[in-house]
Specification:
The complex is a heterodimer of chains A (360) and B (232).
Chain A lengths: L4 E10 L2 E11 L4 E5 L6 H8 L7 E6 L2 E2 L5 H5 L2 E4 L10 H11 L4 H14 L15 H14 L4 E5 L7 H18 L3 E5 L2 H7 L2 E6 L2 E6 L1 H6 L4 H7 L3 E11 L2 E6 L2 E6 L7 E6 L5 E4 L10 E13 L2 E7 L3 E7 H7 L6 E6 L5 E4 L2
Parallel strand pairs in A: 3-8, 3-9, 6-7, 7-8
Antiparallel strand pairs in A: 1-2, 1-4, 4-5, 9-10, 11-12, 11-14, 12-13, 14-20, 15-19, 16-17, 16-19, 17-18
Chain B lengths: L1 H16 L2 H34 L5 H11 L4 H12 L14 H25 L4 H8 L4 H11 L1 H16 L3 H7 L9 H11 L2 H31 L1
Helix pairs in contact in B: 1-11, 2-5, 2-8, 3-5, 4-5, 4-9, 5-8, 5-9, 6-7, 8-11, 10-11
The chains are: A alpha+beta (360), B mainly alpha (232).
Amino acid sequence: MSDLLEVRDLLVRRDGRPVLEIERLTVAPGEVLAVIGPNGAGKSTLLLALARLIEPARGKIRFAGQPLTGRDDLAYRRAIALVLQEPLLLQASVFDNVAAGLRFRRMRGAEVDRRVETWLARLGIAHLRDRPAGRLSGGEARRVSLARAFAIQPRLLLLDEPFGALDPPTRAALLDDLQALLAETGQTTVLVTHDLDEALRLGDRVAVLLAGRLRQCGRPEEVFAAPADAEVASFVGMETILSGRVLSCEEGRTIVEVSGHRLEAVGAVAPGQAVLFCLRPEDVTLWPRDGMPVSSARNRLAGRITALAPHGALVRVALDCGFPLLALVTRASAQELGLAPGMEVLASFKASAVHLIPHR
Amino acid sequence: MNLIWQGIQNAIWLLTGGDAEVWQITLLSLRVSGLATAISLLIGLPLGSTFALGRFPGRSFFLSLINTGMALPPVVVGLVVSILLWRSGPLGGLRLIYTPAAIVIAQTVIAAPVVTGLTAAALQQLDPRLRLQLLGLGASRLQMVLALWREARLPLLAALMAGFGSVISEVGASMMVGGNIRFQTRVLTTAIVLETGKGDFARAIALGVLLLALTYLVNLTLTWIQQRGARR
């Protein structure tokens, strides 16, 4: 299927200085593209450029196969919907806020009512219908902002950090609901976030934007397990990210199958659920093959050292345990253990050190 | 005190007794200042919006001019409009000097910068990202501006009240360009000046009370509309 959106050779300057340079970026119909990057990477600028709300110094944007020109900006903006970081609701009722985009499109009253009621219900805020926007909590305002965009039933939805500044429970609930909505509707979406969890959970593909440049774009597990470069790896942080499936979950203990190994994690994830098994190298401890003492670590694996590299005061050890595993150990430990490439060792890590991310 | 009490009694008598001249003066004041405020709104809303939302060279300079215009002395306005409308002046052919139209022109010159400056301030205090959000929801430029006016409706109504207040209470310009001609260009403020000059304090106080009551009623209505909007 041809791409719904295609960006080529995009350059955005601010005060004469280039702040965003994208050679090529595409979004397929029905796809959720998560654009991740640290603050100041140019993520919001990219979203505004995609919404044609800032004029690039050069570059082409094709939408549904047609190149966009300044003349069709309004028609294009009426085919899309933008949700900015702040909810930015109007001083009106929740109903009127959700209806705003529809009224801009001169939609008839009955259809406006139907759409608004539908999306208020789907976002779980039907009871807030007549409440003034000024009297909403942060989480409620975000839901209204999302309902306002979804009600338009846009061909392309642009979301800029839709969960920013929410408390963890509110954020988690909204993240669950948005994930379900995106899956149900097949809404083509570009999501901008600095949060890796959001990108992993919502994105069909992840694009890593660093210092205004697109550094890597691909399926989330590809991007997170095999960062294209050191900066991406540094941004992604979790250097061991493995696909797994939950075998069982009892009393907070979750057994995950990763490449034929049964590994234990802490958390409540339904059996059968596909997960990303994430581990930071500093949480992995290495032992001699025949000398592992009694330990509280629930996960123990035999592996062969494939590489050693100094990492500041530590040593980075790459292992083959049937899957790639990275460990960081002190130089003293590396010397004491006599670590060397090809050496067989035992690796252990606590169940609580594992981060499981449910994945579609 | 006796003088003031007499004046209030006289005011009640004038209002309830149906003094035709007082009602004619009051209605003319309301008509002239209301029209000047309405024209100022027609000029000030789009102009203030342009200054607040537009990005063009000299914008700050024009805004500073408008802000200076908010403090224009009415007598200076009266002088300039008189010169323009004077029979031998550049617009003398229009024969507007000493007509209600001349007062409307002078009062518009006084009120328009007030409405323009306060409109610009009202829109500038809105979150600038709101414009992007409205456009991102499919608003045309006009729909965006209308939505912003709606968002700023409270300070915009305050701008309207300030504009009306600046002209209903001014006397210098109305006197100079209107001439305070009985049954033609006499408005409440010029009538008060005249009655005070004649020493008829009771009638002057009565007219003053009437002016205050009129201003209060107009502002009461606008405030009611404003606060009704604030509760929504």
